[in-house]
Amino acid sequence: MRRLFIVLSICLAVIAAGCSRSEDKPSAEAAESRIVSTTVAITEILDALEVDEVVGKPTSYKELPKRYMDVVETGNPMNPDLEIIASLNPTDILSVTTLEYDLKAVFDEAGLPADYLDFTSLSSMQDEITELGQKYDRTEQAAALNNQFKEKIDEIEAKTADKDKPKVLILLGVPGSYLVATDKSYIGDLVSRVGGENVVQGENVEYLASNTEYLQQSNPDVILRAAHGMPKEVVDMFDDEFKTNDIWKHFSAVQNNRVYDLEETLFGTTGNLAADEALDELYTMLYEEK
Q: How high does pLDDT run on average in the chain?
């Protein structure tokens, strides 16, 4: 009887140990994932979540996480190489909603359906981080990352609670032209977070064509100039535009030297891990003398 009791005890211990080890392992879905991340922002977030199942990353001049040093490059986020992506046998292809209009038909036709993450605002990015954490068994990492954003948001809201709202014009430059960012854009959302009032509101799109006469009438207190791709060339373009187009001389923001160029690594066109630092930068631009 004593021998039987010992044998049963050993069996129960083995079973318990086996259950304990299985709880530490990722789910079958997460373990078998083969993820192609097509944007820098998504790649950085997956790294922050400690997701190792990435088999494809975007081609970029920006430095990508060392975790994915040996991962295959799949081309520009706006024009990914479908042949390379297909060769990786992905289970998940991750892009962003701002590129869905251009990419969905292309991916679908190639038999490569993708998921499009909403990074158009800080809150929507936080929601996506939560979902990624759940999908890839990284809920603790996702919660910690989102809590970091929440702490910064709370800090900024406390600092701006009693301040007057400056009116802000946001220009998004691309080589050769520029657009106006509405409050529906990611940078527009950040401006709202720090208490700024976007001069372009009530639109259903993120960006609009520029109309300088209308913009002058809006009389912004601050002008923010963001670059999308080739930032040096875009800054040069903005400088030339502001020097040669006389209408800018009549903007009070220009007269008061309150025109700021946004660093592209902090102010992307979609949400990204630099949101904390971007909020601090915007607070300085909108409220403090530089």
A: 88
